[in-house]
Amino acid sequence: MHVALRFLMCLMALSVAAYEPPPLDDAIAADACSNATVGYLASLQVGSFSRSAYFDCFRRHDDVFAFMSAMLARVPHLTSANVTIGKTLQGRDIPAYTFSLSPSPPKQLVYIQALQHAREWIATTSTVYALARLLDDVVAQNKTVLSLLEAYEWCIVPIVNVDGYVATWNGDRYHRKNMRPFTVPNASSLAFGVDLNRNFGPTSSFKAETEEDTEVYPGTAPYSEPETLAIHTWLQAREPKSIVGALDVHTYGGWVLSPFGHQEDEPSPPYGNALATLANATRRAMGPMYLNQRSVQLYPVYGGFGDYMYLLYGAPALIIEMDGHDFRAPSSMIRPRGDELYAGVLTYVQALATWVNDAKPTPAPPNSSVGQTTSHATSWHRPSWPLVGFTLAAVGWGPNRLVL
User: Could you tell me which SMART domains the record lists for this protein (predicted)?
Assistant: First the structure.
């Protein structure tokens, strides 16, 4: 263990030494970069999406959605659709992008989403870049990638928390939650909004709270927020057993986390070990700075998306925390982080067919737990792995602390 700790410290020291801090106001810098690269859509070349100047900058939400649509529309022989799965609290569309190599027969779904938390810009850029790499490989006739797009329907939601993302571009760069108005008199800015990654069901994994003035306020009930309800409603409209996998992309910390987050017990055999194996393979593909464990071993997460996907759909959901040092990241890291995510996505999706000998847990009944609450005693769970505490300190457990 001492050898492992020393090795990890050396790796982190090298990473810190090479770290280029982002500008103090990276929204201004990102807008300036965007203005300098206005022709990226006109010059977009099929087979070279990942080389586009789009990835020189962080982009506002409309630019993200336009680029996603442009890439998918340009790939021949790809069946794709842009759908609006719902509206945000402030009335903005939540776009989703579905695609596969052929529309029939009906396929199982691989679902990927990013940016539940508004300040995590590089979660979205990594996801969009991973799609660009995937589509480049489709055009290049990569046999592995073609088989994955033939086997599954894919769905990507690049920005779940659109309202919050807009707020981070307009002066509140570290905003995390959605834009639900708060009711607490004289509260801090932390009281504004609901943490979407605490707002999922079922009731067995949701933790009712009344304290709004916290970054992890879960809302009044599962799916109380239009963003989480939109995702839930869209997924519930499918046959639950048809959802074969799900990834939820965040930043920062360098983690690949598996269920559960709401309880110490791991999923029942053989699924607990199978999930750990899947998470381990995914993080190994992403690189040496990534670690894997169950979410609760980092800290409890009630009402989280990963537990929701596993409990309601039997899907081996993973939460991916992109590596980094802060919720802000320099634009020079857009492509490297995207490459890491793409490697992880390919490994994950390739493993889905046999993640537990072609079996999966029985999903919960459809439409369960909407609008209901349950209460859990609040407790802090000591991480079971000795390196966890060191890693939290290394990634910045402080004012800009890592919270899933």
Answer: Zn_pept (SM00631)
Residues of the domain holding 266: 2-395
Read off the tokens for 134. Answer: 């995937």
Alpha carbon distances (Å) from 250 to 77, 168, 393: 31, 15, 18
pLDDT of 357-379, one tens digit each? 656 777 765 444 444 433 333 33
Return the SS3 of 362. coil
**Across the strands, what pairs with 133?**
none
| Rounded CA separation 31/37 (Å) | 10
Residue 167 located in a structural domain? yes
Domain containing residue 7: CATH number: 3.40.630.10
Residue 73 lies inside a defined structural domain of this protein: yes
> Which sequence positions are flagged as catalytic?
321
Q: DSSP letter at 190?
A: G
- Is 402 domain-assigned? no
Average pLDDT over residues 380-390: 31
404 lies in some domain: no
Q: For residue 194, how many other CB atoms are within 10 A of its CB?
A: 24
